[in-house]
Write a structure and sequence with these properties.
Blueprint: E1 2-4, H1 6-9, H2 19-28, E2 32-35, H3 38-51, H4 57-71, E3 75-77, H5 84-94, H6 98-114, E4 119-121, H7 125-133, E5 137-139
Parallel strand pairs: 1-2, 1-4, 2-3, 4-5
Length: about 140
């Protein structure tokens, strides 16, 4: 099972360093998991890149359609109250940003309830450091290209 934070999963839709690795992970995994939070974060990243002139209008529309279709293929974890105690601990211990604490707490919660190893895919160094400190298996797609 692979948990993708928004920064890793967006590489599926916007070509950047680590995109090839994310695509390999997604094609090799039946269980790609993320938080509901990833939806607005990824859509926002696509629109921001379009407005910055990095993505042409036609490409932006195609990317948004592809993202919306593929969203239904991911296992989506809701932001729910069981995460709050984990979020509290993570922010206190690692001084994580809000969204990062939601992604890591979701992956930790998933690992606890399934009793399966969860590979945590992210590109943010601080988030990966916190995940590693929490004894998660980590994967930074930017390190493999």
């Amino acid at each position: 099972m692979i948990y993708f934070d928004s920064g890793a999963l967006v590489k599926r839709y916007i070509e950047e360093e680590g995109s090839k690795e994310v695509n390999k992970l997604l094609h090799g995994s039946e269980k790609a998991v993320t938080s509901r939070l990833a939806y607005p974060e990824i859509l926002s990243a696509i629109i921001r890149r379009h407005r910055a002139g990095d993505i042409a209008t036609a490409d932006c529309e195609r990317i948004k359609r592809e993202f919306r279709v593929e969203w239904g293929r991911y296992i989506i974890i809701e932001v729910h109250s069981e995460l709050f105690s984990i979020i509290d601990k993570l922010i206190e211990k690692h001084a994580l940003r809000g969204a990062d604490s939601i992604h890591l707490s979701t992956a930790l919660w998933l690992q606890q309830i399934t009793k399966q190893d969860v590979l945590f895919a992210a590109s943010d160094a601080d988030l990966l450091k916190a995940a590693k400190a929490e004894k998660m298996k980590i994967y930074n797609p930017q390190e493999y290209e």
